[in-house]
Amino acid sequence: MLRRAPRRIRSKLWDQRRSSQHRRRLDPQQPRDEVPCRKHQRRNSSPLSWRQRIDMARVRDGVEVMDIAMSTSLIAAGSAIGGIVIKMTYDGLIERGHTNKENQQRFIQERKEAYDDFLRFNQEHVQYREALRRVTLITRAGLQVKPEVISNFPPSRLGELVDTLDRIRRLAHLHEVVQVAERVVGLHGDAAAALRYYLQSDTATYGLPLFLADRLGEDQILEFIAAYRKDLLLGPPKGAPRNFPMVDRDFPISRVEAELILSRHLQADPRAANFDPSIVDGPARLILESDRRDLETAKFRAMIADPDG
Predict the structure, then answer these.
(1) 21-40 pLDDT tens trace
(2) Range with lowest mean pLDDT among 11-25, 90-104, 182-196
(3) d(CA 295, CA 309)
(4) CA-CA distance, 171 to 225, in Å (whole number)?
(5) Widest pairwise Cα distance in the chain
(6) CB 242 within 8 A of CB 206
(7) Nearest to 154 by CA among 123, 114, 185
(8) pLDDT tens for residues 275-286?
(9) Taken in order 149, 155, 158, 161, is the CA torsion positive or negative?
(10) How many CA atoms lie within 13 A of 191 on its CB side?
(11) DSSP 102-158
């Protein structure tokens, strides 16, 4: 007599039966009655040939897979085109570098001569301004200048500076050189106004604008040297600091702003903007102790005329 299986075993067998039926369902949308059993499918299915497998691999989801030979050809063609593009780009960069170097070397001798002339004329004009300051100090002290000093007075080079500035504008490759040269010429005009203030001012600060113009002019020349060395591809000398030949000064503002403030101050002051010829023969004005000591040196005594003579 057969005994009935325990409940736990019956439940396990039932689960296995349900899972096997679920595995036999190939398409979830297909009704249960239309799903053939695995055994029937296995009998009716026949093995695919290698050609059928290749055709099935070439067509997936209705999209034809690209042929391997065609893919290889396209990759090779793309690589060749990429190599040609890279070679053309490299040749273009090399050619541009040679062109830039040739442009930098063009008119290099003319540019160097223009820069040297500008520095030379500027130095001569600074010497003219210093001689004019000594004469102005003597006049401010109520003294007379010897006639031979006036006859041998150094000439002004401001006209030559302006002409050289026009040459620099035509020849310079860097706009920085032109900007600094224009500031140098403009500061010479402010220094002339500072000399009028030096002669006509009644305050103890009569020499301050001219002192500032001289110091700013020194820094401008250093900026010009640094700019034209860059324009001529010279660079700083060996062992020089990176910011050669600039000098670090403790200015609370930039040099350009200081030049602008000085120019506006001199333009607004009538003692600097206008010159009164009657002051030359007028009485002595306030003289600082440092300037009084300068008047007692041999250089100034050689310039002062003898009041009895």
Answers:
(1) 554 444 455 555 444 555 44
(2) 11-25
(3) 19
(4) 16
(5) 166
(6) no
(7) 123
(8) 877 777 778 889
(9) negative
(10) 25
(11) HHHHTTHHHHHHHHHHHHHHHHHHHHHHHHHHHHHHHHHTT--B-HHHHHTPPPP-H
